[in-house]
Amino acid sequence: MSLTLFTIRNAKPRAKPYKLADGNGLYLLLAVSGKQLWRFRYRFGGKQNMLALGSFPEVSLATARSRRDDARKLLADGKDPAEQRKLAKIDAAAAARNTFGAVAADYLNKLKEEGAAQATLDKNRWLLEDLASSLTKRPLTTITPAEILFLLQRIEKTGRRETAHRLRGIIGSVFRFAVATLRATQDPTYALRGALLKKTVKHRAAIIDERELGALMRSIDAYDGWPTIKAALQLLALTMTRPGDVRLMRRSEIIFPRALWRIPAERMKMRRPHDVPLSRQALAILREVWELFPESELVLPSIRSPKRPLSDNAMNAALRRMGYDCDTMCAHGFRSSSSTILNERGFSADVIEAALAHEDEDEVRRVYNRSKYLDHRVVLMQQWADLLDAFRSDSIGKYRHLSAS
Fold it and tell me: Helix H segments across 157-226?
């Protein structure tokens, strides 16, 4: 006869434990202490087994029967309910250990071991540890697309569309890494494709008019601030490199006899070494600042310490002092200036791309181009330096012949 709530509530403890049967292996064990414990008795593999289903009243009669029925379904499928419970506990414990924060830390370590640039590591760490901090302690398997979308849209509403897209990408990378290492089964960011507003593309400000660029070069020449900032801006214009490359330039990288600056792979965006031919003008600037800080490994150290490089904002701040606002010119804009003007003058696009260290996707072509175009880049960099001198003196017409031959 099946149990009723009346029977259960009126059952009293005895000197010894006793059972009240409900049917199909389910019974209520009444302990001497008065506790009422649900149990399911079954046979599996020829052996008698017992499965604890909780205690009354925390587990109701209906819930106990539902748990019994679930166990009986497992038996019908040839599975031991007790063994399945153990496996579920193991999976739950593993899931609790595999939090988003733990897997994100493993992913960042993987990037570091693979040689990712420090700037890339710092950026990704900021995205994962700061912006995605609400996910840090959450088990991966419990994080839903809706939860991630809420996080991304909160950032998007502040106007940082680019950051929201970057965060979605890096969260997706962590989940795909978790799938590859058998700690997750899917990437929930896949469902969010197209959910965010399109990124607002803001091009870096750059002067591409030759006469205006000449006026800027004259302003730089007349700059009376910290000498390494002036030299940094001049070298930035002459070498077509990135501001970070110039700021971190080291003495050991300059090969004066070959008129070459060899930037190591760990500092390059594409993680490959880059040789920069130095024009006569660039060499003159380097020789001028070379002896200013002989105790420093850096060619262009900070005003605060010879052991520290110029700050990220030092060159942009100098441009602002000269009267160039952020919508007119920025330090990174010198690359656009040189690329645009040289392309308009008909110089080889491939040689210009090689000078800018823009990598070809084809590995064989990339290696071939790097060696093939070095001699061409030597010529290009000298011609570009001569053009800058012409822009300075406003004698552009005299140098119209400087173009592709």
Answer: 161-180, 210-221
SS3 250: strand
Integer Rg of the chain from CA: 35
pTM of this structure: 0.54
Q: What is the pLDDT along the chain (405 residues), one digit of tens a residue?
A: 688 899 999 899 999 999 999 988 999 999 999 999 999 999 888 889 998 999 999 999 999 999 999 999 988 888 888 888 888 877 666 666 789 999 999 999 999 888 777 778 888 999 999 999 999 988 888 899 999 999 999 999 888 888 999 999 999 999 999 999 888 889 999 999 888 888 765 567 899 999 999 999 999 999 998 899 999 999 999 999 999 999 999 999 999 999 999 998 877 766 678 899 999 999 999 999 998 888 899 999 988 888 888 887 899 999 999 999 988 999 999 999 999 999 998 898 888 988 888 765 444 444 444 555 888 999 999 999 999 999 998 765 555 555 554
Give catalytic status of residue 358 as yes or no.
yes
The residue annotated as part of the active site, out of 160, 269, 372, 392, is 269
Q: Which amino acid appears at position 161 of this protein?
A: R
Is 165 a residue of the active site? no
Verify whether residue 242 is a known catalytic residue. Answer: yes
* Nearest CA among 188, 192, 160 for reference residue 100: 188
Catalytic residue from among 218, 262, 332, 392: 332
Phi, psi of 44 (to 5 degrees): -145, 130
- Domains for the chain: give ranges and CATH numbers: 5-95 (3.30.160.390), 100-192 (1.10.150.130), 210-399 (1.10.443.10)
